[in-house]
Design goal:
This protein has one domain (13-71). Helices cover 23% and strands 28% of the residues. The chain has one helix and three strands. It is globular. The model has no long low-confidence stretch (mean pLDDT 86).
């Protein structure tokens, strides 16, 4: 059954592309929008994604990869 229009709140999450030290990339990583903005801008997203990676690595029994860069999906390159 289809959802009614307007039931999915927009702007609840921001999406980021993450490039790791081994040059692998993960796209559209979700970060709660409430963590972002203010004086730190998108920097809190790095900590949030690192924590997600740490949890995933624990469950899989692997070591987490180091993050090389993070960029917001749809943001213009400088």
């Amino acid at each position: 059954m289809a959802k009614k229009p307007g039931t999915n709140p927009k702007g609840e999450f921001a999406f980021f592309n993450v490039v790791y030290e081994d040059d692998s990339q993960r796209s559209n990583r979700r970060v709660p929008a409430e963590l972002l903005g203010g004086l730190d801008g998108d920097e809190p997203a790095r900590g949030y994604i690192m924590e997600q990676d740490r949890e995933i690595a624990e469950k899989s029994g692997r070591t987490p990869l180091a993050i090389k860069s993070i960029s917001r999906v749809g943001a213009k390159k400088k």
